[in-house]
Design a protein that fits this description.
By secondary structure, the chain is an alpha+beta fold. The protein has helices at 18-32, 39-43, 108-120, 123-140, 143-149; strands at 6-13, 61-62, 65-71, 75-82, 85-94, 97-105. Strand 5 (85-94) and strand 6 (97-105) form a beta hairpin.
Length: 155
């Protein structure tokens, strides 16, 4: 899957420790992508189910994705495929920026139609940006982040 064409990259600034951002990313992925909805069996996505305890370790699965690489606090690579596409979604934490890079191939006529429906419509962009926003929100409301960013005035 290393030779997949680049589709897009989205980024969000998140001021927090790498551990906080990583934890939030895993929490969001576990929560938002756990079921995969009705599309997973229709598309014939592989893998079809989530790991019992998704933690972002190599081999863990979410419907339609398998963790191919994981560098704690820095990089998470999810790969998958279905009838119309082979794809890779890479999350890179670089300083205060969390990037989501998508690479995918859409072979054949059906693949071209699927790409138009998902990428061309802007649906993919909306979903990835929403996911990054959710990660930022989870970080902002985490007790650890609130403690480290709150300021206290001297008595």
């Amino acid at each position: 899957m290393d030779d997949l064409p680049h589709v897009d990259t989205h980024a969000r600034r998140i001021v927090a420790s790498p551990q906080e951002v990583w934890s939030a990313l895993i929490t969001v992925l576990r929560g938002t992508m756990r079921s995969g909805g009705r599309l997973i069996p229709i598309l014939g996505a592989e893998p079809g189910v989530a790991s019992a305890a998704f933690s972002g370790q190599v081999g863990d699965t979410l419907p339609g994705f398998r963790v191919a690489e994981a560098e704690l606090g820095r990089r998470l690579v999810l790969c998958g495929r279905h009838r119309f596409s082979s794809y890779r979604l890479t999350f890179v934490l670089d300083g205060e920026e969390l990037r989501a890079e998508t690479h995918a191939a859409f072979p054949g006529f059906a693949g071209k139609l699927y790409r138009a429906a998902v990428i061309g419509s802007g649906g993919h962009r909306v979903l990835v940006r929403r996911l990054l926003k959710q990660v930022a929100r989870v970080v902002a409301y985490s007790p650890a982040h609130t403690r480290t960013t709150s300021t206290s005035s001297p008595a």
